[in-house]
Amino acid sequence: MRYILVLLALSSAYFAQSQTPNNIEAVEYDPDGNRWFVSNGSSLLVTENQGENWAFFGEAEASHGMEVMNGVLYAIGNNVIRSYALESAELLGSLVIPGVGFLNGMGSNGAGLLVVSDFQGNRLYTVNAEDPSQMTYAQLTGNLGATPNGVVIDTDNNRAIVVCWFNDADILAVDLESGEVSTLVDGTGLGSLDGIDNDGNGQYYVSSWSPTRITRYNADFTESETVVTGAAGLSSPADISYAVALDTLGVANSGTDNVTFHGFGDPTSSVIEWAGFAAQRAGGDVLIEVPTGRSVELTAYDAAGRVLVQRMEFLPAGTFRWPWPITGQQIGIVQLRSGADVITLR
Predict the structure, then answer these.
(1) Terminal CA-to-CA distance of the chain, rounded, Å?
(2) Mean pLDDT of the chain
(3) Taking residues 132-158, what's their average pLDDT?
(4) What are phi and psi of 231, to 5 degrees?
(5) Pairing of strands 181-185, 171-175
(6) Measuring CA to CA, which of 67, 89, 139, 161 is 20 to 30 A from 105?
(7) Hey, how many other C-beta atoms are within 10 angstroms of the C-beta on 189?
(8) What tens digit of pLDDT does each residue of 330-346 get?
(9) How many Cβ atoms from other residues are within 10 Å of residue 221's Cβ?
């Protein structure tokens, strides 16, 4: 089993345009350039060394989903779909879809078709991108009755596969011709599914916030297994991208604004761990696992970012339960820190 975990602590002295990712949501692999893109709020960053250094990709913008297709990078930037030449970062075209609420996920068939999700409007749209300078769109579905997030296209079955938000979220399939919706997984037991991608071998990878993990499904979604846990550096894992040539999954961790890379070159590999610590919400508790003694700090924030509770203790190796610090009608997040390692729970 091989894996690479990249924590983004960059030095501007090393590379003149070196940048630190901020407000990230999506990551995308470019197989022709052997490089990774990451959305960066109102800009777009690229790395050729798996996150040792990031640089601006021209003046390109990306806040959410991205796809590389036929020499072009397509990116959602605050509800606008833009196309950029991979060689020059030149803006080739842009598309605004009237009436959308919040464009979020994006998938492609590799041959000129994009599917994008409207997280707020609960709809899917297709985008004809055969000419990246003259993109057109059509509504694929009406209200799905669920909140769509990440999208990938299953070309063999001519369908979009969509992961949904909120608790015990579903995984849906949408026929690309008829728009007919079917349910692949009726209640995954996972909350807040965010990203989805496939590995070229009929397997699908899904990121979730609750629990914090990457789950791998077989081709017909009848079997699943956890392959990356929060202990591998995940924190609110958002959009993901599988680099088939590298057998490596890139994950945009919106909780810590870093990209982690997880290799699957060894087919016998299962759960990927690292020598940090793990934490997850377990009912009314926070379950913390530490492989070696270390100090762990817990901070609970309300929805406005105000500190509700703080706690720090040195924990010897083992498993520990701390009470979940957000009570009643309070809404917020809980962050646990140990050294440079951060885990965000909701």
Answers:
(1) 30
(2) 88
(3) 97
(4) -65, -15
(5) antiparallel
(6) 89
(7) 13
(8) 778 888 888 767 788 87
(9) 16
What single DSSP character describes residue 59?
A: T
Integer-rounded Cα Rg, in Å, for the chain is 20
Which tokens in the block code for residue 47?
A: 């790395």
Tokens 């052997």 locate to 34
Q: Where are the domains of the chain?
A: 18-263, 278-345
Taking the C-alpha atoms of residue 152 and residue 118, their distance in angstroms, rounded to an integer, is: 14
Cα separation, 235 vs 289, in Å, equals 15
Give CA separation, 180 vs 114, 143, 144, 176, in Å. Answer: 17, 12, 10, 8
Report the alpha-carbon distance of residue 259 to residue 92 in Å, rounded. 27
CB 236 within 8 A of CB 24: no
Contact in structure between 251 and 258 (CB atoms under 8 Å): no
What span, in angstroms and rounded, lies between the C-alpha atoms of 95 and 339? Answer: 43
- Mean pLDDT in residue range 187-205: 95
User: What are the DSSP E strand ranges found in 269-329?
Assistant: 278-282, 285-290, 294-302, 307-315, 318-323
* Strand-pair partners of 336: 298, 343
CB under 8 Å to 114, separation ≥6 — which residues?
67, 69, 74, 81, 106, 107, 108, 126, 127, 129
Burial status of residue 253 (CB atoms within 10 A of its CB: 0-12, 13-18, 19 or more): buried
- The dotted CATH code for 278-345 is 2.60.40.3080
Say yes or no: do domains 18-263 and 278-345 share a fold: no
CATH 2.120.10.30 applies to domain 18-263: yes
* Band (108; pLDDT cuts 50, 70, 90): very high
195-218 burial, b at 16+ Cβ within 10 Å, e below that, comes to bbbbbeeebbbbbbbbbbbbbbbe
* CA nearest to 300, candidates 333, 262, 343: 333
